[in-house]
Amino acid sequence: MRSALVTGGTGTTGRRVAAFLRTRGVAVRTASRHPVTGDDQHVIFDWADPRTFAAAVDGVDRVFLVAPLSDSDPASAVESFLDAAVAAGTRRVVLLSASAVTDAPSGLGALPPLVRARVPEVAVLRPSWFIQNFVGNHPVAVGIRERGRITTATGRGRVAFIDPDDIAAVAGQLLLGNPIPDGELILTGPQALSYDEAAAVVGEVTGTAVHHTSITVEELTAAIEASGVPHDYARVLAEMDEEIAGGSEERITTTVQDVTGRAPRSFRDFLIDAHRTSSNRPERAVA
């Protein structure tokens, strides 16, 4: 084996994949648009600048692929990247997609068939929604902290939220060379919850009342767009909530267990660990 490239190497999943591989002795190159202090294996990579592709894929035989997140139709940029990667010797690609994205002739759904057509060995990961969205700086987490409220267009639809560490473990095992399972790789947590139920769990864990408000797709699109997201992509994100309302994310799979040999972490256990960590973090001294 030569080395692995992790695109989106500073993101929620990418940095976890890189850490997983490095602890197992794999030479890892991370790639993103900005430099990373202390990582001499990091390269500057910009989907909008094909001149950055060659340095990223040089000597790489495996790639964790995270497509440009703000592009509603990223196939052209990804196609150019794949051509450069395969020419440099890449044999296996693990593509991070989403459970809400199905194969299609355009948009995000065009990526799985594109990668399969260009690369000899392909695994397409379709994880459910991240539990990580309930902590940190994600809009869901900000709404919880600042207003005690979660706002979606999901109605009473349920989601089997998944820990990004479990996604990274699956990706890492496949990038190590494990056989790629047949069929779709839908990754979920062990339990499907509505946002009303998730809000109740957050409240129980944190001791703070949290409520869920469901709004229309149009209202959610406008809210996402107001945060700086382009309209077309904001609409795509809002329509994913509409699919949840229709029951698209209530499924639970055994993929994490099958690939990694261990069960995925539950929503409650994740939040307990996150809350404990934040509670134990020392406060900064104020002059």
Topology:
Blueprint: E1 3-7, H1 14-22, E2 28-32, E3 42-44, H2 53-57, E4 60-65, H3 75-87, E5 92-96, H4 111-118, E6 121-127, H5 139-147, E7 149-152, E8 158-159, H6 164-175, E9 185-187, E10 193-194, H7 195-206, E11 211-214, H8 217-226, H9 231-245, H10 255-260, H11 267-280
Parallel strand pairs: 1-2, 1-4, 2-3, 4-5, 5-6, 6-9, 7-11
Antiparallel strand pairs: 8-10
Helix pairs in contact: 1-6, 3-4, 7-11, 8-9
User: CATH topology of the largest domain, which one?
Assistant: Rossmann fold
Number of strands: 11
**N→C terminal distance:** 53 Å
The coarse silhouette is globular
Tell me the major beta sheet: 7 strands, parallel
